[in-house]
Each structure stands twice: as structure tokens, then as C-alpha cells.
Write a structure and sequence with these properties.
Layout: E1 4-8, H1 12-23, E2 27-31, H2 34-42, E3 45-47, E4 50-52, E5 55-57, E6 66-69, H3 76-83, E7 92-95, H4 102-109, E8 114-123, E9 126-128, E10 131-133, E11 137-143, H5 152-165, E12 169-170, H6 175-196, H7 200-203, H8 208-226, H9 233-244, H10 253-259, H11 267-280, H12 285-303
Parallel strand pairs: 1-2, 1-6, 2-5, 3-10, 6-7, 7-8, 11-12
Antiparallel strand pairs: 3-4, 8-11, 9-10
Bound molecules: NADPH dihydro-nicotinamide-adenine-dinucleotide phosphate and ketopantoate.
NADPH dihydro-nicotinamide-adenine-dinucleotide phosphate (NDP) is lined by residues 8-14, 32-33, 36, 70-73, 75, 78-79, 82, 96-98, 120, 123-125, 127, 253, 265.
């Protein structure tokens, strides 16, 4: 029987990967509240210029085999509420959210299910209302904290779905380190791009924006090291290589939010860095400034 996949969050990331799964004939349902479904029905989702006919449900009859979560961090609690009837003991959950805490939150909400660690990297998806475009979907990196681990069968089942759909993926031996690498990426490029409203091209060359990005990322390395996670300078180089391949005119997810006047994921990036800096005794002055600027920006927009 074909595995049932449920996606919550039909935005840049969700519609990007969802369209690939859908085109491959994977049994995919988009889960959303009735108001969103009505809105999506009146304005179909278009991915790279092609309208995609997603199957939409407000709830499904049976638990899903795989749940993909692709909402912003601020909507995770709402997504969990929606997902509650869709998750059973056989359900595997992948969170494509950035940040390092969404899996913990999902695992606490769904102790009966398998919540793997996951991220997507090398993706440059941009959304404008119901239109999504990307030049690359990069790859989904997922697995248990250490692979292979006790949930190797569930990891293999997800890999089989991605193989069938042609979604690029990787199961690393040390997934915790990879999650922190992705966190390093976002703490740097997402926050600086959101403050200055700049696309990837500004970060692809030497200059002030790239220097501030790297300064914020070096703080992640220091905090990670204090917590026993072995990130280093080579991880910065690894990011710069990925960055060089992103669409120069595309924007990070956080810059998209900032430019559209939406709240950002700053609490998951600089906010978490400040809390971890306090816990580990590692100074995080760059992130403290980025936090202040992003919060001040949100306050100004809220008063308009
Ligand atoms: N964009 C990118 O290239 C990348 C983003 N990420 C991360 O992935 C996550 C998602 O980002 P992105 O796709 O850019 O964000 P988007 O804002 O484009 O998409 C989020 C989607 O979630 C939907 N949503 C919000 N609340 C609910 C709800 N209660 N029920 C159902 N759907 C809901 C929104 O619906 P609506 O539009 O109707 O409000 C929106 O379509 C973030 O954590 C981001 O940091 C990771 C890698 C790359
Ligand atoms: C790494 C990056 C910047 C794009 O893959 C991202 O994760 C985002 O836009 O949130």
C-alpha cells in the first residue's frame, strides 16, 4: 500500500517539496484549517509557474505514515493542534523548520510517534502569496541523532518515499551536528538579510554583509563547542560553498518575512543564541545586536 503523507505548511518549503511529491504520484494531503483551505481553493498554488492541484483536508480518517511540517516557528503550536488526530504510533514526523527546537516540541506533543531530526539545505524557495519559485530545492538531511540507530527502519521508510519522488536527501552519521550546522547558516544569513533586506547576491561576495553574517556564525561555533558539538571553521567554508550556488536574486525565508512586514523567527535564532550564551558563559554580542535590531524593526512595523 502506498504510504500516506500529510503536509502542514504549504508555503515556500512545503509547496516546493510538496509539488515534487505530488508530481511523483505520492499520496500527499495538505492539512490546514477550513479558512486556509477556502483561501487556497480560490487562489491555486503555483510552483515555478505551474499550478499544482494539491489535495487539501481539514482532517484525515487515519493516522499518516509520514508527516512533513513546514510552517514557520510561530505557527508550530497551531500545526500541532491540527496534526493531533493524524498522528499514531506508526507515524514518522519530519520537521523542515529552521532552528534547533522544533523536533523537541513535536516529540513532546507526540510521544507515541517517531520524530526524526531534519533540515533542508541548499534550497532557495521564495513565496509571494500563493506563488512559489525556487532555483534549487537542495536536499533534505534527516535521521536519528546518530545513524544508523534504533529507528533505522523508519529512516529507511522515509528514504524510500524520497527515492520514489526523486527528492534529494542525505542521512548523516551525526545528525545533531548537521542540525547545528544549519542553525549556524540561519543565525548568520537569515538575520542579516532580514535587517538589510538583501538577496543572496549580497552575501555571495566579500563585503560588510558577509562579514557580519560570518561574525554571527562564529558565535554559533563557540556556543556549539561549549555544548560539546564539534562545529568549526570548516563548517563556515561548507556554508560558503552552498551559498555560492543559491539563486542570487532569491531571499532567505526571514528576509521574505521582514520585507512583507510579517513577524520573523528571530526568537529561534538570536533569541536562542542569547539564552545559550547565558547558559554556557559564551559571549554573543553580535547576536545580541541582531536580536535588538530585529525586535526593534518588528515593534516599528506593529505601530504603523
Ligand atoms: N524558504 C526557504 O528557502 C527555507 C525555509 N526554511 C524554514 O522552513 C520553515 C517554513 O518556511 P517557509 O516555507 O519559507 O515559510 P512560508 O511562510 O512560506 O510558509 C509557511 C506556510 O505555513 C502555513 N501555515 C501557517 N500556519 C498554519 C496553520 N495553522 N495550518 C496550516 N498551515 C499554516 C502558511 O499559510 P498561509 O500562507 O496561509 O499563512 C504558509 O503557507 C521555516 O522554519 C523556515 O525557516 C528552511 C529552509 C529553506
Ligand atoms: C539556508 C537558507 C538561507 C536557504 O536554504 C534558509 O534556510 C532560509 O531561507 O531559511
Amino acid at each position: 500500500m502506498s504510504p500516506r503523507v500529510v503536509l502542514v505548511g504549504l508555503g515556500a518549503v512545503g509547496a516546493g517539496y510538496g509539488s515534487v511529491l505530488r508530481q511523483a504520484g505520492i499520496d500527499l494531503e495538505v492539512l490546514a484549517d477550513p479558512a486556509r483551505i477556502a483561501r487556497y481553493g480560490s487562489r491555486p498554488t503555483v510552483v515555478n509557474g505551474q499550478p499544482v492541484a494539491f489535495a487539501m483536508v481539514t482532517s484525515a480518517e487515519a493516522p499518516a505514515d509520514l508527516v512533513l511540517v513546514a510552517v514557520k516557528r510561530g505557527a508550530l503550536e497551531e500545526a500541532i493542534e491540527l496534526l493531533t488526530p493524524q498522528v499514531g504510533p506508526g507515524t514518522v514526523i519530519l520537521s523542515l523548520l529552521n532552528g534547533i527546537d522544533s523536533e523537541e516540541v513535536l516529540a513532546a506533543a507526540f510521544p507515541q510517534a517517531t520524530v526524526l531530526l531534519a533540515l533542508s539545505v541548499g534550497i532557495d524557495a521564495v513565496r509571494d502569496d500563493r506563488e512559489v519559485h525556487y532555483s534549487s530545492l537542495g536536499r533534505i538531511v534527516f535521521g536519528e541523532p546518530a545513524n544508523p540507530g534504533p529507528r533505522a527502519d523508519q529512516v529507511a521508510a522515509v528514504a524510500a518515499i524520497f527515492d520514489r519522488a526523486g527528492v534529494a536527501y542525505q542521512v548523516p552519521s551525526d545528525m545533531v551536528r548537521e542540525l547545528w550546522w544549519k542553525y549556524l547558516i540561519n543565525v548568520g544569513v537569515n538575520q542579516v538579510s532580514a535587517i538589510i533586506g538583501a538577496p543572496y547576491r549580497v552575501f555571495q561576495v566579500e563585503g560588510e554583509a558577509r562579514a557580519v553574517m560570518i561574525a554571527a556564525q562564529r558565535e554559533v561555533i563557540a556556543v556549539a563547542n561549549a555544548l560539546g558539538i564539534g562545529l568549526g571553521e570548516a563548517d563556515l567554508d561548507r556554508w560558503l560553498e552552498v551559498l555560492a550556488g543559491l539563486g542570487p536574486d532569491n531571499f532567505t525565508s526571514m528576509a521574505q518575512d521582514a520585507l512583507a512586514g510579517r513577524p520573523t523567527e528571530v526568537d529561534s535564532f538570536a533569541g536562542t543564541m542569547m539564552a545559550l550564551g547565558e547558559r554556557t558563559g559564551v559571549p554573543v554580542p553580535v547576536n545580541t545586536v541582531l536580536f535588538g535590531l530585529l525586535k526593534a524593526r518588528e515593534a516599528v512595523l506593529a505601530r504603523r
